[in-house]
Amino acid sequence: MDMNTIEAVVRTTDPAEWRDGDAWLAGGTVLFSYGSYAFGPEPLKRLLDLGAAGWTPITVTDHGIDLAATCTIAELYNLPVTAGVDGRDWAGLDLVRACCDSFVASFKVWNMSTVGGNLCTSLPAGPVISLCAGLDGVATILTPGGGSRTVPVADFVTGDATNCLAPGELLRSVHVPASALSSRVAFRRLSLSNLGRSGVLLVGRLDAGASLVLTVTAATKRPVQLRFDGLPDADRLAAALDDAVPSGLYHDDIHGLPAWRRDMTYRLAEEIRGELTVPAGTPGLRVSGDFWPPRSDSAPGSTTLSKGA
Questions:
Q1: pLDDT classification of 308: cutoffs 50, 70, 90
Q2: Residue 140, exposed/middle/buried by CB under 10 A (0-12, 13-18, 19+)?
Q3: What is the model's pTM?
């Protein structure tokens, strides 16, 4: 928490107030750990605090779900059991808790870390990135000129800790469409250590019961999404991965070498293809990794406390 260069904390949600030396502050779990030199050689001078934004964390409509950038992971985790989604045939909600569990973080992080913070930090292993990209989420971005723009979450992250935000721009929310939420989904995650940072995380989606959408994250420096008309066979899936993910796009750090991430991407992609090819609930499916199928009997602050401890 080396933040001894901060001269002011300004409560605002207006991008017009942003100037050089500023940083947007939401939960702060990453910003405070990175310190005053989080964004380069020049120290931060001001924090633009979103704590009083008053944005509704989660809004559910017939068109889908809107997640405010300030929505906490604890609030997101509880989404599948909130009244707003009762009676809706949204199988995609099964991904929510699997992705939240992939934080493998303490309850303190769950109650402070935000949807927007995870997206804007833009680390390959960011599980909110995996969730929102896998469900065709679209980010709304506020601009300093008083306008806004939208960008698919799959395109929001451009590399390891880089994204499409221009100086002063502010991530406002992410819209997850009902069409994607209505799809059957599958999830796979691998880490080199028990409850460690994701080294590979794949989300599969079966649109209209026929077309496969596969989103690769954690293994790659940015999300990679593959779309198929229908369900591909194993050879076609592997060939598509060959074309979509060049060797230089696989991430390389202490949590996994590129060659391992590549091999596991192919393995998990084939598992997802196999799961979505057969009827839901088919026994005997191979499921590598953890957090799938999703748990429904836990909540932040209870069985999750040991994660990351």
A1: very low
A2: middle
A3: 0.94
Is the separation of the CB atoms in 213 and 141 below 8 Å?
no
> Tokens 């995650």 appear where?
189
196 CB-contact burial (10 Å; exposed 0-12 / middle 13-18 / buried 19+): middle
At 106-141, the pLDDT tens digits run 888 999 999 999 999 999 999 999 999 999 999 999
**Distances, alpha carbon 47 to alpha carbons 3, 80, 167, in Å:** 10, 33, 14
Six token digits for residue 303: 């069985």
Residue 32: half-sphere exposure toward Cβ, Cα within 13 Å:
10
Confidence of residue 39 (pLDDT cuts 50, 70, 90): confident
Q: Measured between alpha carbons, how far is 232 from 275 in angstroms, rounded to an integer?
A: 13
Any residues with CB less than 8 A from the CB of 79 and at least 6 apart, and which?
58, 65, 85, 93, 96
Residue 179 vs residues 15, 63, 91, 182, 237: alpha-carbon distances, Å: 32, 8, 11, 5, 23
- Distance separating alpha carbons of residues 215 and 260, to the nearest angstrom: 18
Q: How many CB atoms lie within 10 A of CB 214?
A: 26
Look at residue 68 and give its three-state secondary structure: strand
Residue 180, H or E segment: helix 178-181
